[in-house]
Q: What sequence folds into this?
């Protein structure tokens, strides 16, 4: 098979997620096995504009599969939102004869990549990497499984102290626009209620639910609040609930960036390795403006524009299941 590309770039962009290193490793080793040179671009689009990139050999990505974060660093670039910034980035890539890029990140990253492709005809393959799992075109994004497990471990610990002190805990998890972490952590820990951005939160219903739990003999409760919930973050929700019903001893715990770090789970390592491999082979097959994902156990290439514009819907029915099982 004749391979069109001799040199490609790879970078991570937006919020980091555990497993990004495993994806970089897979991209580098797959490409090199096809005789394609790979340049690692630092700090996402920022490094592209600043010409901060260097060739990665197979040994450069040794010993990173188990490491959280990203060896290439990550950033959100304001300059890449300007044509001037993108032109500089393109010139830097062209001067090194880099003919295609592999972008590991979320929808902001893919929006930039899609515009870049349209303006400069740069071939682009996106790999979904974000703890939020909010990307259409892949059942799971790299980092989500690890973050979910981190949250579950943290909430298990909070359950212990909540039970000892008969307290009502509001636990805030990440997810500005997406409730995947909140919903599935809630099911996995048996949380009494889960507030997510995809549904309208009625605090009266939450209080009724808590009262019902109390009536059944429960003495403590965990409410998981996704940071982007319409009723507010955990502190705000706790304050509002206190105003409506002051009968609980309440505490708030914001889990924050521990959710973004840590060694990737086995699932994330496997996902990242597969997607890194399929990103390179996708380029070789001729995909030029696509995101690679896995849906129903099959590799799927979705046009970047579709991946950006289509919501990754959450199964809201699972909220009812979670409440039913947590009584
Ligand atoms: O997109 C990943 C994410 O962790 C979101 O869940 C969160 O809202 C956001 O990034 C926080 O980003 P940062 O702290 O890097 O600005």
A:
């Amino acid at each position: 098979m004749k391979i069109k590309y001799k040199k490609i770039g790879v970078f991570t962009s937006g919020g980091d997620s555990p497993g990004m290193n495993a994806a970089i490793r897979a991209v580098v080793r797959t490409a090199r096995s096809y005789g394609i040179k790979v340049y690692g671009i630092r700090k996402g689009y920022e490094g592209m504009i600043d010409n901060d990139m260097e060739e990665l050999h197979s040994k450069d990505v040794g010993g990173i599969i188990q490491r959280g974060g990203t060896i290439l660093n990550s950033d959100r670039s304001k300059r890449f939102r300007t044509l001037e910034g993108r032109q500089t980035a393109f010139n830097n890539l062209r001067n090194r004869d880099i003919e295609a890029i592999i972008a590991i990140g979320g929808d902001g990253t893919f929006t930039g990549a899609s515009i870049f492709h349209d303006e400069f005809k740069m071939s682009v393959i996106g790999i979904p990497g974000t703890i939020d799992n909010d990307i259409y075109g892949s059942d799971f994004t790299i980092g989500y499984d690890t973050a979910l497990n981190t949250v579950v471990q943290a909430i298990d610990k909070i359950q212990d102290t909540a039970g000892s002190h008969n307290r009502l805990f509001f636990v805030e998890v990440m997810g500005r626009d997406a409730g995947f972490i909140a919903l599935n952590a809630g099911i996995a820990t048996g949380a009494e209620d889960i507030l997510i951005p995809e549904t309208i939160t009625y605090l009266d219903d939450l209080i009724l639910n808590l009262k019902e739990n109390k009536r059944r003999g429960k003495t403590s409760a965990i409410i998981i609040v996704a940071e982007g919930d319409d009723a507010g973050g955990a502190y705000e929700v706790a304050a509002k609930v206190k105003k409506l019903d002051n009968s609980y001893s309440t505490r708030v715990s914001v889990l924050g960036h521990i959710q973004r770090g840590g060694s990737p789970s086995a699932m994330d390592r496997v996902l990242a390795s597969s997607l890194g491999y399929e990103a390179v082979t996708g380029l070789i097959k001729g995909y030029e403006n696509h995101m690679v994902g896995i849906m129903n156990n099959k590799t799927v290439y979705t046009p970047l524009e579709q991946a950006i514009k289509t919501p990754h819907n959450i199964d809201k029915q699972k909220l009812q299941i979670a409440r039913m099982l947590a009584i």
Q: What stands out?
A: The chain has two domains: 7-143+264-309, 145-260. The longest helix spans residues 144-165. Residues 145-260 form a domain with the Rossmann fold fold (CATH 3.40.50.460). The longest strand covers residues 289-295.
